[in-house]
Write a structure and sequence with these properties.
With about 250 residues, this protein is α+β, with helices and mostly antiparallel strands. It has one domain (about 5-235): Glutamine Phosphoribosylpyrophosphate, subunit 1, domain 1 (4-Layer Sandwich), CATH 3.60.20. The strands form 3 sheets. The protein has a 5-stranded antiparallel β-sheet with strand order 10-1-2-11-12, with helices on one face. Strands 5-6-7-8-9 form a 5-stranded antiparallel β-sheet. It is built from 6 helices and 12 strands. Helix 1 (about 55-70) crosses helix 2 and helix 3 runs antiparallel to helix 4.
């Protein structure tokens, strides 16, 4: 199980991922799902991956080989082209592995989040599907998620606003979204990787890894729970009618 999250704000991007992989609750391992590609001053990319670990590793290794040879992500002129480049890597891996996987009743399952910036345009955030096609985050929908997203989404829907949420506040929303997910699904867990990208910096130098039992993460968890309970207790009381509810006899409903 996986949870990856990208948030786009006016100030930049927040990218976050858990590091737990599993083939059932009794087979848990740790593997990084955050991968970075950068040429400081010219381009900076962060890729988050979910799905089959072997497939995502193959896609990232292919993208990294192209990048290292000065091709692919090293040369694309825009973030959209970067998303299409990753999509091409996904399709190339699909050409190699999809038939064998599906012959044994395994689906070709790999999803990617791409965040970053190419010099000359603004930051952007994309999701790449197993078919290789991308969609982008927008000012109206400024975050994208992969994996076990349902528990951490309501908080983001209520709180994150592209034009007014600062990068640091977005980072707090990201950690709280992970906190809600980990609380409800034991297959999601630390280490949590968190990277903040500041608009026009064209470098990846604001990174944090939260291991199991990290004091700062535990403090945020405890203070959030206290604040949430206090906020609920401070809500106006619910008023009920004085007259008791009269139930209609079942015989009259037939």
């Amino acid at each position: 199980m996986t949870y990856c999250l990208g948030i786009m704000t006016q100030e930049g991007l927040v990218m976050a991922s858990d590091s737990r992989t599993n083939a059932g609750f009794d087979d848990l391992n740790i593997a990084r799902k955050m991968h970075t590609f950068s040429q400081p001053g010219d381009r900076a990319f962060v890729v988050l991956s979910s799905g089959s670990l072997s497939l995502s590793q193959s896609v990232v290794n292919l993208a990294r080989a192209r990048f290292g040879s000065g091709e692919g992500l090293a040369r694309v002129p825009s973030m959209y082209d970067a998303a299409r480049e990753l999509g091409d890597c996904v399709r190339q891996v699909a050409d190699l592995d999809r038939a064998a996987l599906e012959r044994d009743n395994y689906s070709f399952n790999v999803h990617l989040l791409l965040g970053g910036q190419v010099r000359g345009e603004g930051p952007a955030l994309y999701m790449i599907y197993p078919q290789g096609n991308p969609i982008s985050a927008t000012e109206e929908s400024p975050f994208l998620q992969l994996g076990e997203y349902k528990y951490g989404r309501p908080l983001l829907d209520r709180g994150v606003v592209f034009g007014s949420t600062t990068l640091m506040v977005a980072a707090k929303y990201a950690l709280l979204s992970f906190d809600a997910t980990m609380r409800s699904n034991g297959a999601i867990g630390p280490p949590i990787e968190l990277l903040l990208y500041t608009r026009n910096s064209l470098s990846l130098d604001c990174y944090r890894k939260f291991n199991q039992g990290d004091p700062e993460l535990q403090n945020i968890h405890a203070r959030w729970e206290q604040s949430l309970r206090r906020a609920v207790e401070d809500l106006p009381d619910i008023h009920f009618p004085i007259a008791p509810l009269e139930e209609t006899p079942q015989a009259l409903l037939i």
